[in-house]
Design brief:
The structure holds two protein chains of two kinds.
Chain A (H helix, E strand, L loop, with lengths): L16 H5 L15 E7 L5 E7 L1 H5 L3 E5 L22 E2 L5 E7 L2 H10 L1 E6 L18 E2 L3 E2 L1 E4 L2 H6 L3 E9 L11 E7 L2 E6 L4 H12 L6 E4 L15 H13 L3 E4 L5 H4 L6 E9 L5 E12 L21 E10 L13 H19 L3 H7 L17 H12 L12 E2 L2 E13 L6 E6 L5 E4 L9 H13 L6 E4 L16 H21 L10 E6 L13 E13 L5 E11 L6 H20 L31 E5 L18 H4 L1 H13 L10 H9 L2
Parallel strand pairs in A: 1-14, 12-13, 16-17, 21-22, 25-26
Antiparallel strand pairs in A: 1-5, 2-4, 2-6, 3-5, 7-8, 9-17, 10-15, 11-12, 11-14, 15-16, 18-19, 19-24, 20-21, 20-23, 24-25
Helix pairs in contact in A: 8-15, 11-12, 13-15
Chain B lengths: L3 E3 L2 E8 L2 E8 L4 H8 L18 E4 L2 E4 L12 E3 L13 H9 L8 H16 L21 H7 L10 H12 L1
Parallel strand pairs in B: 2-6
Antiparallel strand pairs in B: 1-2, 2-3, 4-5, 4-6
């Protein structure tokens, strides 16, 4: 019998789905208004230096070009916390691709033509964009991204490692990676009667408004930011990017609505990227597999614009019981674009390295890699000593092994061939922290028997509208179709941004609470409702962000089967299966899509995605979708995502953990471990492209 | 027929979702920008503007094309179908649009119109006997090519989806060809 659509976990269809499949959902560039202008930025053509002169005369002579903003004349901005937004404020070029001008025109063609006609002269300086572990500029930061301490140490890990019976000492490299959401970063801005209205592609319109208020020294009340439909973000739209600032500047200058839609190939330099990480992993173990020492040391880069440190050593603080440990980050500031969040920052590259090293340790010990992980299951969180609110990693591993027929695996590498193909299987674990931020919501019962829930949540494709409506309907005990929901605008009750897999937990909590209050109000009264209905509000400030006595994380296990072509060097994933323990799953349909989507991105990280900072030119060589290979249909097999039921009372009223990121976390390691099982060769640098595979297979 | 030219602009008539639309277009203007900005049909999406992602896929005279790569001035008299025109005049969406909803064949929705238009074009190509890279060379030519999952994946590989909805998209296409 089908479950009622309001039951927690019911696979309700996406509320905005019909708009999306019919082309009626409007994204940030799709809000036409009379007189709207289009703009095209001019990226810096040197990797370091200063702009000495900008000649805009030829551009301004072109038909349709309205104005050109340059560092000489662009509106001045107040200071903000994010130096990447200080565009067109001075002549400095901190990296190639930094915007040095903006051409505003009546049409896209004229704007693009105008940008090509802007002549920029530079005083170029020597640049350095090459990351090495021994780079003399490297330093230990105070914190890594997320506020984590840069270094944590327990016991005497060096000595414990030296005296361990079995040791693995290996290095891994993860290249720069690009988010590349399908909708490029886009903003339409319009000033009218002293009010600023912005349509932008953002994971959090509230943050955009706050930053604009700061930069342009405006009251937030004078700014409205809409982000109703957002074409993906994956971290790169977590905070405003230069398109927002440029569009507002251009609208100020011209007095007309302006759209800035960043050209795809400009994105890698200005919207953030996953920083490259160089990992050294040292694992020492006793003969029974128990870890005696774990050292994970990471070197990464940041820009000279601001410090961002990919927290890749932090998952090792959560995963395994090791008597001694050291987890440490070093960062090297270079003349590179500024890195930022990309889906599971820290966990994705960190768990690639840790879980690959665990596989190497299992091989050294002659132990099954599932059993090795089970043997190192900690009783409390290793770094903090806190009890876990819930932890079902072992169940995920066991359930995944059962579904994947792991027991039928011959553990010896390179024992399974089909013609020119070598086949292998691999496993890796995953973890992602539970994050929640304060948010507000309102709920209103209307006389016609319907309900209206309002919250400035973002739906970037996660299905937040749908799951929040389900939470409301569940609390109110009414059919789902009687609940209307509004999200994606600063005109709604303030809510946190969609990031850190925090959305459903952060937004669901006040929705749950407002609806609980509303249900109580309705229960206390009889007779018809007043014309405007009955309304309640909720605010989780001080609670959603309160410290917990528990260590709260989601866990998962990935299993992969790959075929490596010994002639072409191509690696293809034949099977991919994930099992997750992430609290209560609130919508089976949209949750599965998020898990699978994360795994597809992990497949890309393993096999096809990789960017290179060109040493001579100082920018990313793979800057568009023809050169930076995100997975395509033909790369992706049927993928299975399952979950184990988890009842965790220490989270929020729904009992949910975040699910947007954990799917990517262990996928690359599982695929890499499968490639080793197939070939007998360890590949320690991503992605596993044919050149690397063939080099490994021939031993050259 | 024939377009009237004046300087860098020309008059063209496109038949868009069944309706004739006459416009004066900049010779540099691509079909995608005409649809999105001149005709307020934003269903076709701009993901890359370089024919690399497929988000702008529409049907021109029944064949799928990247509308970001076609100059509108070259399309005088052509029949253009966008995602907005698939449902026809009825209230009900096209069966493939319905299948995308049921299978959850999308997340952010930005690649979705392109995936849907591309899939319809691909199904028509297979029906007309066009082989793909994975078609068995032994199949008799000119006959409809059966679309199994590998065929669907191969033929839709020009349409990128960063949310990773691929497995569900393939299921949705299977639903409408059965």
């Amino acid at each position: 019998m089908p479950e009622p659509a309001t039951a927690p976990g019911a696979p309700a269809e996406r509320r905005e789905g019909r708009l999306k499949v019919t082309g009626s959902a409007r994204y940030a560039a799709e809000h036409p208004s009379p007189g709207r202008l289009q703009a095209w930025p001019v990226p810096a053509a040197v990797a370091r230096g200063r702009v000495t002169r900008i000649d805009t005369a030829a551009a301004l002579d072109l038909p349709g070009v309205v104005t050109v903003l340059t560092p000489d004349d662009a509106p001045r901005l107040a200071e903000s916390d994010d130096a990447t937004l200080a565009v067109l404020q001075d002549a400095r070029v901190p990296h190639r691709g930094w915007f040095v001008a903006l051409v505003v025109a009546e049409s896209l063609e004229a704007a693009r033509d105008g940008a090509a006609a802007v002549h920029v002269a530079y005083a170029a300086e020597e640049h350095d964009v090459t990351l090495t572990e021994t780079h003399p500029a490297g330093y230990v930061p105070e914190q890594a991204n997320g506020g984590y301490p840069a270094v944590r140490e327990q016991g005497d890990p060096e000595a414990a490692f030296a005296s361990s019976e079995t040791r693995v000492d290996v290095r891994y490299r993860v290249p720069p990676l690009h988010n590349h959401p399908m909708e490029p970063h886009t903003t339409t801005a319009h000033w009218e009667d002293g009010r600023l209205t912005v349509h932008t592609s953002s994971q959090g319109s509230g943050v955009v408004r706050a930053v604009l208020a700061q930069l342009f020294e405006l009251d937030e009340e004078r700014i409205t930011v809409h982000a109703e439909h957002v074409g993906g973000g994956f971290g790169s739209k977590g905070t405003p990017r230069p398109d927002v600032v440029l569009a507002v500047m251009a609208a100020l200058r011209t007095g007309r609505p302006v759209t800035v839609a960043l050209p795809r190939r400009f994105l890698p330099a200005v919207v953030g990227h996953r920083a490259p990480t160089l990992h050294r992993l040292r694992l020492g173990a006793a003969p029974d597999g128990r870890l005696t020492s774990l050292l994970h040391e990471v070197t990464t880069h940041t820009s000279h614009v601001k410090e961002f440190v990919e927290q890749a050593a932090t998952p090792a603080r959560v995963m395994y019981a090791a008597a001694s440990s050291r987890t440490a980050h070093r960062v090297v500031p270079l003349d590179v674009p500024t890195p930022s969040w990309m889906r599971a920052p820290g966990e994705a590259p960190g768990m690639y390295a840790l879980e690959s090293a665990m596989d190497e340790l299992a091989a050294e010990l002659g132990m099954d890699p599932v059993d090795l992980r089970v043997a190192n299951e900690p009783e409390t969180e290793p770094d903090s000593g806190k009890p876990f609110s819930s932890r079902h990693l072992v169940e995920c591993l066991r359930e995944g092994a059962r579904r994947f027929d792991w027991d039928r695996r011959d553990p010896r590498p390179r024992t399974w061939a089909e013609g020119d193909l070598l086949i292998g299987t691999g496993v890796a674990a995953a973890t992602y922290p539970v994050m929640m931020w304060p948010s507000k919501a309102s709920a209103r019962a209307l006389p016609d028997g319907t309900f209206l829930v309002r919250i400035n949540a973002a739906d970037i494709g996660t299905g937040s509208r749908t799951v929040l409506a389900q939470i409301a309907a569940d609390v109110l005990e009414v059919p789902l179709e009687r609940v209307r929901i509004e999200v994606g605008s600063t005109e709604l009750p303030a809510a946190s941004l969609a990031g850190g897999s925090s959305g459903t937990a952060s937004w669901g909590w006040p929705v749950h609470e407002a609806c609980t209050r509303l249900a109580a109000l309705l229960g206390d009264r009889s007779g018809p409702l007043p014309g405007q209905g009955l309304a309640t509000e909720a605010d989780t400030a001080g609670r959603a962000d309160a410290d917990s006595p528990y260590a709260r994380h989601a866990f998962g296990a990935h299993f992969a089967e790959v075929a490596v072509d010994t002639v072409t060097g191509e690696t293809r994933v034949r099977r991919l299966l994930g099992v997750y323990a992430a609290g209560r799953i609130l919508n089976a349909r949209t949750a599965r899509s998020q898990f699978v989507g994360g795994m597809v991105m992990g497949l890309g990280m393993a096999l096809t995605e990789g960017s290179t900072v060109d040493a001579a030119f100082g920018d990313f060589t793979e800057s568009d979708l023809a050169s930076y290979h995100v997975p395509a249909h033909a790369d992706v097999p049927d993928i299975e995502a399952h979950w184990v039921d988890e009842d965790d009372p220490h989270l929020n009223p729904m009992g949910s953990k975040g699910i947007g990121e954990i799917g990517i976390v262990g996928t690359a390691a599982a695929i890499g471990n499968a490639a080793h099982h197939a070939t007998g060769v360890r590949f320690r640098e991503l992605p596993l492209t044919p050149d690397r595979i063939l080099t490994g297979l021939t031993g050259r | 027929m024939g377009s009237h030219s004046h300087g860098h602009h020309s008059d063209v008539t496109l038949r868009v979702n069944g309706k004739p639309r006459t416009l004066t277009v900049d010779h540099r203007r691509v079909l995608l920008d005409v649809l999105r900005d001149d005709l307020d049909l934003p269903g076709a999406k701009k993901g890359c503007d370089h024919g690399q992602c497929g988000a702008c896929t529409v049907l021109v005279d029944g064949r799928r094309v990247n509308s970001c790569l076609l100059l509108a001035v070259c399309l005088d008299g052509c029949d253009i179908t966008t995602v907005e025109g698939l449902a026809g005049d009825g209230e009900e969406p096209h069966p493939l649009q319905r299948a995308f909803l049921e299978r959850d064949g999308f997340q952010c929705g930005y690649c979705t119109p392109g995936q849907i238009c591309s899939a319809l074009g691909a199904v028509a190509e297979a029906e007309a006997g066009h082989p793909s890279h994975v078609t068995d060379p032994a199949l008799p030519s000119g006959r409809p090519v059966p679309l199994d999952r590998d065929e669907i994946r191969e033929r839709l590989s020009g349409n990128l989806c960063r949310c990773g909805a691929y497995p569900r998209i393939v299921e949705a296409v299977e639903d409408v060809i059965r």
